[in-house]
Amino acid sequence: MRISLKFLLALLLFGFALLATLVSFIISKQQVTDRVTKTITKQLLNDLNLIQSEFERYIIYGQAEGISQSVAAKSSEIDTLLLVVTSPNGKVRASTSPVDIGKYWKQLNYEFNSKQYQRVLEKNTSSVWSSTENQWIDGMVPICQSNFQISLRNQQCGVAIYRKDLTYKTNEVLQGIITQSVYIGIGSIIGAIFILIITHYLITERVIKIKNILIRWIGGERDVQIQLNINDELSDIASLINELVQRFSEEEEALQRSEQLKQAIINSANYSIIATSPEGIITSFNKSAEYLLGFKAEELVNKKNPEAFHDKHEVSRKAEELKHRFGIDVQPGFDVFVAIPSMGEVYEDEWTYVHKNGDKIPVHLSITALFNEQGDIEGYLSIAYDISAKKKNERDLYLAEKVFNNTNEAIMITDENLNIVNINQAYCSITGFSKNYAIGKKANIAYSGKHDKLFYEEMWQKIAHENHWSGEIWNRRKDGEIFPTWLTINTVRGKDNRICNYIGLFKDITQQKLAAEELEKLAYYDQLTQLPNRVLFNERLDRMIIQANRENKRFALMYMDLNRFKYVNDTYGHEIGDELLIQVAQRLTKSVRESDTVARLGGDEFTIILSEQKELINLNDITGIANKLINVINQPFMINNLNLYVGTSIGISIYPNDGTDTSSLCKNADTAMYKAKESAAANYKFFAEYMNKENHSRLELESALRSAMKNNEFSLHYQPIINITNQKILGFEALLRWQHPHLGNISPEHFIPIAEDLGLINELGDWVFCHALEQLREWKTNISQEFYIAINLSAKQLQSNTLVTSLVNTIEEYQINPQNIHIEITETSVISDPEMAVKKLKKLRDIGFKISIDDFGTGQSSLNYLKKFPINTIKIDKTFVKSAESDQVDMAIVKAVLSIAESMDLAVVAEGVETKSQEKLLLGEGCKIGQGYLYSKPLPASQVKQLFNRKLRLVE
User: Sorting pLDDT into bands at 50, 70 and 90, what band is 722?
Assistant: First the structure.
């Protein structure tokens, strides 16, 4: 049976009665609970104080087991639910539940108030807290460690947690209240049943009839009517409902037609249309929105905008823009979109939609508020369209504009008739023509006049066929200066393939051309003399060989090296040396034809390619050129008020006789040059095949020399130095000998220069000095009289920084008096650095060594050396001794040397004495010391002992 209206009213009264009874019960229960809670709370605080006092006393007296006993005793009380005691580290030390002991208090399966626990520790006081259901109450009190000696509580505290049962006390009080509430409820139910019986028969049936009619109408039956028999208030209500239903049906039909039209318009629109409620809930989502965002309408309807398809960072940024632009302070969210529409204005701006796949789509968004008749906002309508293409075009145009205006290349755009329609800033900067001046003018406003008519005809012919052209072209600036450019011209054609425009791009390549020229100089020219360097020389020589080979011609190549350049460079410095090289280069260039190539390979080495080619080359012509170059270089060079003299040595090779490629021609010319340097008769040499053979021999000798010392191939021979007057031995000159197992006896004249070139001379000189001193020490043990050993030093040894130290260490090692050692040097060994030589020789003489000049008279500036050098002895070269009997000049030299030596109190030794007549001549002129084959040839140490048994004997 359906419940009637009056029955519902009775039921409502019954409900109110029950509600009142229930509220009364609840209030009574709460009051009882509050009183019980207060009573137990007070009791709990007292218990906590007792627990604190008792437990801390146990701790003070070291009776921690008392805590566990007290906790066990408390567990027997009927209203005790839990008692837990923690240590300062938070672990349980005692509990009514033994399984809790040792666990961290937060790990226990009890509902504790962590804040209460921390507050008890921080404030060091007790605290009480009730559960939300008033089932139990927790009391917490700190249990602190204490010092028994001073009875002070410290800050290391644990907590005692005491939980009491509230329901035990309250249940007894509530039992009586429940009984009373049951009686009140039964009375209320009886009254409600009485009211139900009265109202059921008067109202219920007609209300049910109205309800059923309304249900049918809601179900779609628009033609049903409510008909009641009794004319009363319910009948009037039924008539009004019938009239309302009729009007609603008519309006519903009109609204349905309007809605269908609206949806058709919205779904057919090309714009994304999204409607939302005032709170931002999406209520409508058209087809264009689905296409734009990739979501189906059902995926987003009833979801909130902007979370659905907006970038939250952009929403935050737009919120800041609203604040700064309009002073509207909104939080990031839906309000950003509707802040302006809410004021009745249309909001338009560019936004970014986030597609379902994550792509970002720029859109133009327009939002309008929808108002009802009362002026209240019913929702918002958002209309958006994709502006990706527009943004791309804007970016492309912006980029094109930036490139056009900021590129370093000048750009000119003309129409099909070559009238200028636009130029960029670079064009103005490079040419000096302003944009206002240039636009409308012909494209040739910068015409330089440097190119002929044919050049331009070929250029435009290529443009016509290939639609572009690029190349070097000279233009003229506004001020008249012409300059080189690299120009590119492109043709622009329309859809009909007709020419619309020409675009010319060029850049000023003045600096590039200068840089290229400078790079060419750096790469191909010597920076000091500006002559071609080795690279360019090789290229030109390669071309010359190719041309000569093709035409079956011959040509000559010269290698030149300056004599005494190192002396000038070391003596006067590199600046003077560089200036000397520059002047040499100038003289050489003026001495040959322009078609010839003068190059500097490095240092003081020059080359000349004689470019004139002939089928039969005339050696006399080449000789003439060589003599001319030698004479030019032999002339003095005036540099910084200094008259400098240098010579040159020239080596000449002929193509193809002396080589058919660059390498062989250069090698052979270089070989001839070194032969010219070694020759005293001429300053130039033509290459000959024997020179290579000599080079091979030298290389073989170099290889053998490197291993000679290791293989003990060296030995010392000794030649006596004799007092001519009494034929007594004064000393011995130690002479180095090399006996090679295959090459035989090799003269020092051959291997000493090689040792100097290879850097072996110091090691070889040390060997000579040590072995000579060792031999001298052996002789001293057998011969009591004094005599000396003469030891030769080469130029390279004299240049060594460790020479003096090495000699001193050696004589100390062998315990030899330095006065028994004569150091022999030649004039040529001191030419390179006379000041250095003087300093070292003075040190040696001060130590006690005797100094002799060997081969005196064969070098340069001999008298000057006698004056400067700290010498004791002069040795007359054997060439003068040999010819003194027959050559008056050589005899005059011998007499002059003896006279000078006597005036300077110097001893004189005549070398190369071979005959008695020579000995007699020398003795007659006052020379008392001689050395030569007349007395003995150089002998090995083992044979020297035989001299002691002959008439020759040591000085007493």
Answer: very high
